[in-house]
Amino acid sequence: MEITEDTIKHVATLSRLEIDEKDIGKVTEQMSSIINMADQLSEVNTDGVKETVQVVDRDTVFREDKPEHWQDRDELMKNVPDQANGFIKVPVIINKDEDE
Amino acid sequence: MNYLNEDIDSLNEKLAQGTLSADKLAQDTIDNIKKTDDKLNAWITVQEDAKPQNDLDFAHNKLAGIPIAIKDNIITDGVKTTAASHILDNYIPVYDATVIERLKKAQVTLVGKTNMDEFAMGSSTEHSYFGITHNPWNLDKVPGGSSGGSAVAVASGQVVAALGSDTGGSIRQPSAFNGIFGIKPTYGRVSRWGLIAFASSLDEIGVMSKRAKTSAEVLNVIAGSDDHDSTLSTRAVPDFTKYIGQDVKGMHVAVVKEYMAAVDGDMRAVLQEQIDALEKAGAIITEVSLPLTKYVVPDYYIIASSEASSNLQRFDGIRYGYRAQDTKNLLDVYVKSRSEGFGEEVKRRIMLGSFALSAGSYDRFFRQASKVRTLICDEFDKIFAENDVIVGPTTTTPAFGIGSEISDPIKMYNNDILTISANLVGIPAASVPAGLVDGMPVGLQIMAKRFDEGSIFQVADFIERTNKFYEKTPTGMED
Lengths: 100, 479
What we know:
The complex is a heterodimer. By secondary structure, chain A is mostly helical. Chain A has 3 helices and 2 strands. Chain A has helices at residues 5-14, 24-38, 73-77, and strands at residues 83-84, 87-88. In chain A, strands 1-2 form a two-stranded antiparallel sheet. In chain A, a hairpin with a 2-residue loop joins strand 1 (83-84) and strand 2. Chain B is of the alpha/beta class. In chain B, strand 10 and strand 11 (440-448) form a beta hairpin. Chains A and B meet through helix 1 and helix 2 of A and helix 9, helix 10, helix 11, helix 12 and helix 13 of B. Chain A: It is an enzyme of class 6 (ligase).
């Protein structure tokens, strides 16, 4: 199947990744060959076949919904890159002058 | 000291008798890693202050005081855990994975974290933010991957055993390339709590060591149900060491013709010798066919990448890991942190997964792959209805040259053609050394029914005793 630069740009957006404009040709070519390798599966007749998405030997597991003490707040905040007053700090979420 | 001629029994005996102290063992292990790792680069983090626990109980804990290496995608409390990625290169976990908790309870000495392909995506340990790992049999060859650092740490005698993870062959292929034993247990046998997720329906933690019995001892410790992982089976875990030292008479052994056809004449001859030895010892050999083998690579890459694209959403630069600078809004933090933090191969897989799951592609890719997975499971079920194990090659070639496949992703993906199916089907599988071809190790793969790791240990131990490969020293490690 044909994979265009626009398809790859769309997939990059979905993936929250950006591709440098100078690399887009090469990335499209590479992704196209990988996707076409994956598309070989279209040859297999799967009419009436059920899907397998996991190979677990148990049904849904239930447990009591009760709180547990696991870690202190300070411990959990240790890896946060930017914080203030015990909160995680992030930049503005929506720009005033432009839409996402 | 090194571990080239040691196993769990020999170490436990010396420790119990007092001819070797656990303190000295820990210190000598660190010293030897520092001495040998310049040329190998098997480690990301070495815990230079590693100390054995107090009150070691050598009679009850076979692993007491013995250093074991951990792949760097398994969470260790207070010890940097990176998954070999820039996006996690400053991450210090605040809890232990279940397998680490259990090793600590068994009084293991943890000495550090081993190199790997970033997020376990790769077959050569060339996709690491921390540099390439070298094969101790020939330093110009790759060690395989993604658990390349763990395999090299064992093969070069830096440790007696290591934990790895296997999503499509990441324990077995590097074990084969380095001439050691490595087992991926049944899906649901070992808790994944604290394993940095790649593809949740395929990922499995396992063990690598020179001798099968050593891995059996470690698996005894790490296997079994865990409230933190509801995909884990609740069935009882047998003592895997009881399968060591057994004969193979009457075992039904299947040989897959497509697998044997995938290797060249020299490799086939080495593998055939092992099969002949099994037959001579009374095993019943049957040739079988897995016609869908040619579709397992595309099937795996769709499923694994789809799951990865979902799992890796959590790396967004907010709560932990790398956060990009000079960002103008929240979306920008996500996009820049991910684009700067992930390596090329990881980005390719995330994009393939997003594509396969996206509107317009879902039916043709993800749904179709899930259906083909069912057909692959059916093929294996049929063979296991009449056979105890399947044996054959682990890889299509011995270790390839560093740099020879890195620029061709599809060629690299095809490395996994013989190992992927065990993950798709959820069965246990291992690689045991078969011999050498042009000076490089070749592995015999052994697969068994779900939860029958016992048969794998039985066959692997028989092969070990027959060909005595463990007596060999990697050529790159000779002084």
